[in-house]
Specification:
- This protein has about 575 residues and is α+β, with helices and mostly antiparallel strands.
- Among the domains are: about 110 residues, no CATH class; about 80 residues, Sandwich (Immunoglobulin-like); about 100 residues.
- The chain is built from eleven helices and 29 strands.
- The strands form eight sheets. A six-stranded antiparallel beta sheet has the order 24-29-25-26-27-28, covered by helices on one side. A five-stranded antiparallel beta sheet has the order 19-18-21-22-23, with no helix packed on it. Strands 8, 9, 10 and 13 form a four-stranded antiparallel beta sheet that branches.
- Strand 18 and strand 19 form a beta hairpin.
- The longest helix has about 45 residues.
- Keywords: Membrane, Transmembrane, Transmembrane helix.
C-alpha cells in the first residue's frame, strides 16, 4: 500500500520557488550542456572578429590616405606648376614652419650681411673683435599657399609646403601694387614738406624691393614730371633718401667733456634739420666702423668721441643713415648695412671747450718748482715752455727762483698751435695764478683771478698766428700714425711716407739723429702697436698720446720683448 504523502518527492523543486513561490526552469540534462558551451564560444569568437575588423578599417583608410598624399606630393614636385618646399621634424608644427621657410627661400630673395663689432678699452689694454653674419628672408605673405603632412613610421612628420605659380604671380602683383602706392604716398608727403614721414615710407619700400624676387618698376609720375622712363622702385627710394641726407643742415651746438681719469669721453652735440623741419628717424655716428650709432630725436643728437684730439679745430666726417626702426620689419633690420643708404657729411669742430689745458706744479726744495702739463683729451706730440723769456721743450721743466724773485711768468704751447696754449703766473710756493691772455682754465676751478677766454666759432676767422709749414706737416702725419693700432698697418704706412721722402724708417743705427727720432713699439705676438714715443728731451721720452715720460734706459724694461721701429722726419 502506498503512502499518500511520502517524506520526499523525486521531482526537483527549486529552493527559490519554495521561498518566493515563482517557478524556475529545471536544470538541463547533462547530455545537452556541450552544445550550449559550443554555441557560447562561437559567439565570443565572432564578437572578437568583429572588433578586429572595426579596428582594421581606419588603418586601411589611413594607408590609403597616405598613399594618396604621396601621389599628390609627387604631382606637385614633378608637374612644374608649383613652387614647393619640404622639411622633416619630430614636431608637427615645427615641420610645417620649416617647410614654409624652405618654400620662401626657394622663391624669394634672401640677403646676407656682415658687421664687425669692436670693443676696446681707452688705454688699448685689450681689444676683442666679433664678426656677426646675419641672414634674413622676406616675410611677404604668400596668398593661396597650402601644405601636405605625412606621418612617417618612426612618428616624425614630413611636410611639403607649396603654392601654384598662378597664385604666386598674383601675390607678386599685389605686393608690387602696394609698393607703387607707397611711393606715391611718399611723393605726396615730400611735396607737403613732411620729410620725416616720407623717409619712413622710402625705407619701407627699399626694404620690400630689396627682398622682392624681381624688379618693381614705377611709372614716370612717381618719379617726377621730368622723368620719361620707368625706374626701379628701390632705386628711387635710395636716391630720395640720399638726397635729403645730403641736403640736411648740420650744426655743432656744443662740445662737452665728460672724461674721468684716463678714460676719454667727449660728446659732440649736433642739430640736424631737413629745411625747417627737425630731423627724425635717422641716425648719426663718426665715420669709423667701431663707433655706435646715435638716434636723432627732435632734430638733436649727441655723438660720442673716445679718442684724443691733436688740434684745437678739425673737420670730422659723420655718417648719416635712416634709423633701424623707420618702417622696417625685424628681419630687414638685420641687414641694414646692406640696404641702408649712408651719407657722409663733414662738420667743423672747435674742440677747445673739451680740452681743459692747464699747468700743475710741485714745490721742491731750494726755491724750485716743477711744472707739469695737464692735457686731458689731447694727443700731445710737441710742447714748448716759455719761462720768463727762456724757451724749453722739456716735458716737466723745473723753475729755479733767484733771490728776490718770487713770481715767474710761464706759458705752455702744445703741438705748435697757439690755440692750444695757456699762460700762468707761478709763485715760489708753487701757487698758481692766472693772467690775462689767450688761455683756457680747467673747468670747475674757482680762482680768485679769472682768466680771459677768447673762443672763436666756425664762422669766425682763426687767429693769425699759425705753425710753420714743417710743423704742420709733422702734426698731420703724427695724427694719422697715432690712430693706427695694428703694427703691420703702421709699418706699411711708414714705408709709404718714406717713399714720398717725408721721413726715414729703420733701426736706431739708421737714424741721423737718434735722439730726435720717434719710436714705435710693436708687440710681436699680437702685432699691436703698444706705444709711440716722442723724441728725447733732456734724456726723457714721452708716450704719445699723453704725458707719461721716462728715460732712454727705462725703455727696455718698460717694453720688454717688444719690437721697435724708428722713424725720423726729414726736412720738407
Amino acid at each position: 500500500m502506498t503512502d499518500a504523502n511520502p517524506p520526499f518527492s523525486m521531482k526537483p523543486v527549486s529552493v527559490c520557488s519554495a521561498v518566493s513561490g515563482k517557478t524556475v526552469p529545471p536544470e538541463l540534462p547533462l547530455s545537452a550542456r556541450p552544445a550550449v558551451l559550443i554555441s557560447r564560444w562561437a559567439f565570443l569568437f565572432l564578437w572578437c572578429l568583429g572588433v578586429m575588423a572595426l579596428q582594421l578599417v581606419p588603418a586601411v583608410s589611413v594607408v590609403a590616405q597616405s598613399a594618396g598624399q604621396t601621389e599628390r606630393i609627387l604631382e606637385i614636385k614633378q608637374s612644374g606648376n608649383y613652387h614647393w618646399g619640404e622639411a622633416f621634424h619630430e614636431n608637427r608644427e615645427q615641420a610645417l614652419s620649416l617647410a614654409r621657410q624652405d618654400l620662401i627661400e626657394r622663391i624669394v630673395v634672401f640677403v646676407t650681411s656682415e658687421s664687425e663689432v669692436r670693443v676696446s678699452e681707452n688705454d688699448e689694454a685689450f681689444r676683442s673683435e666679433v664678426m656677426m653674419r646675419n641672414r634674413s628672408i622676406s616675410r611677404m605673405e604668400l596668398r593661396g599657399a597650402g601644405h601636405i603632412e605625412v606621418q612617417r613610421r618612426d612618428g616624425s612628420w614630413r611636410t611639403t609646403a607649396y603654392i601654384s605659380r598662378e597664385d604666386f604671380a598674383r601675390t607678386l602683383d599685389i605686393e608690387a601694387g602696394r609698393i607703387r602706392t607707397a611711393l606715391s604716398q611718399a611723393q605726396t608727403m615730400e611735396s607737403l614738406g613732411n620729410i620725416n614721414g616720407a623717409m619712413a615710407i622710402w625705407m619701407d619700400v627699399l626694404a620690400a624691393a630689396s627682398f622682392f624676387p624681381e624688379p618693381v618698376f614705377v611709372s614716370a609720375s612717381a618719379t617726377g614730371p621730368d622723368s620719361d622712363n620707368q625706374v626701379e622702385a628701390g632705386f628711387i627710394s635710395r636716391e630720395r633718401i640720399l638726397h635729403w641726407l645730403n641736403a640736411a643742415d648740420i650744426s655743432v651746438r656744443d662740445v662737452r667733456n665728460q672724461s674721468a681719469g684716463e678714460n676719454i669721453e667727449m660728446y659732440l652735440d649736433l642739430e640736424i634739420r631737413f629745411g625747417n623741419q627737425p630731423a627724425e628717424l635717422i641716425e648719426a655716428a663718426l665715420d669709423r666702423r667701431d663707433t655706435a650709432l646715435h638716434t636723432v630725436a627732435g632734430g638733436f643728437t649727441s655723438v660720442y668721441v673716445d679718442q684724443p684730439r691733436s688740434n684745437a679745430r678739425e673737420t670730422l666726417t659723420l655718417r648719416l643713415m635712416p634709423s633701424a626702426g623707420s618702417g622696417m620689419n625685424e628681419e630687414a633690420a638685420l641687414v641694414l648695412e646692406r640696404i641702408r643708404p649712408v651719407s657722409r657729411r663733414s662738420v667743423s669742430v672747435d674742440w677747445r671747450p673739451a680740452l681743459p689745458i692747464d699747468i700743475e706744479t710741485v714745490a721742491l726744495s731750494g726755491g724750485r718748482v716743477r711744472l707739469i702739463p695737464h692735457t686731458p683729451n689731447l694727443s700731445v706730440f710737441n710742447l714748448r715752455w716759455n719761462i720768463d723769456g727762456r724757451s724749453t721743450s722739456e716735458t716737466t721743466p723745473v723753475v729755479t727762483f733767484q733771490p728776490g724773485s718770487d713770481v715767474a711768468e710761464v706759458s705752455l704751447r702744445l703741438n705748435n698751435n697757439e690755440q692750444l696754449s695757456v699762460q700762468k703766473s707761478i709763485h715760489r710756493s708753487g701757487r698758481i695764478t692766472a693772467v690775462s691772455g689767450r688761455q683756457q682754465p680747467r673747468p670747475g676751478l674757482r680762482d680768485t683771478q679769472t682768466s680771459t677766454r677768447n673762443p672763436w666759432r666756425a664762422s669766425d676767422t682763426p687767429p693769425s698766428e699759425s705753425p710753420s709749414a714743417a710743423d704742420a706737416a709733422v702734426t698731420s702725419v703724427l695724427d694719422e700714425l697715432l690712430r693706427i693700432r695694428i703694427g703691420d698697418q703702421l709699418i706699411t704706412h711708414l714705408n709709404r711716407l718714406q717713399e714720398e721722402g717725408r721721413l726715414l724708417v729703420g733701426n736706431r743705427g739708421d737714424m741721423p739723429e737718434a735722439a730726435q727720432s720717434y719710436v714705435a713699439v710693436i708687440n710681436p705676438v699680437n702685432r699691436r702697436v703698444e706705444a709711440v714715443l716722442s723724441p728725447a728731451h733732456n734724456g726723457l721720452r714721452t708716450r704719445l698720446p699723453g704725458t707719461t715720460s721716462f728715460t732712454e734706459n727705462e725703455i727696455p724694461e718698460r717694453f720688454r720683448n717688444m719690437g721697435t721701429v724708428w722713424f725720423y722726419f726729414t726736412e720738407p
